[in-house]
Design brief:
This protein is mainly alpha-helical and 139 residues long. It has four helices and no strands. Helix 2 runs antiparallel to helix 3.
Length: 139
């Protein structure tokens, strides 16, 4: 029960953060796109630095994760959509399809590479701790 409530709270916070990001980025991106596109990677670097230095503290992590959700969820998707649609204004349907395909490919490749790296780390750690003779089951 507690895990379900925690998951619901986390999902609600992420949806709220994405909505805030969409609202923050919508109009300003159309007025000064260069400023937003340039500032976005710098803001992400600041969030990643804060994650690195404050990762062991609960309250700052909650706030940093919320800001990260605003940046990565709402603002990044708006910037990506703006860049792709402005590159091909004559064919908006194609640009939208390209945006969706890029998101799906990025999710697929990112999940595969992340899973591979996590698997390799787990295997290497298990090999380091237990040695090469570890057997999980008797033969």
């Amino acid at each position: 029960m507690v895990l379900t409530e925690a998951f619901f709270g986390l999902a609600s916070a992420l949806v709220f953060a994405n909505t805030v990001g969409n609202l923050v980025t919508g109009k300003p991106l159309t007025y000064n796109a260069r400023k937003w596109v340039t500032a976005f990677p710098l803001a992400l670097i600041a969030v990643y630095a804060a994650l690195f230095f404050l990762g062991e503290f609960a309250v700052p992590m909650i706030l940093i994760t919320f800001v990260w959700g605003i940046l990565a969820g709402g603002i990044m998707s708006n910037i990506n959509q703006y860049l792709i649609s402005s590159a091909a204004p004559e064919v908006p349907e194609f640009a939208n399809g390209l945006f969706i395909a890029s998101c799906n490919i990025g999710t697929t490749v990112g999940s595969a590479v992340g899973g591979l790296l996590i698997g390799l780390v787990v295997i290497a750690r298990r090999h380091f701790i237990y040695g090469p003779g570890l057997r999980l089951a008797e033969e």
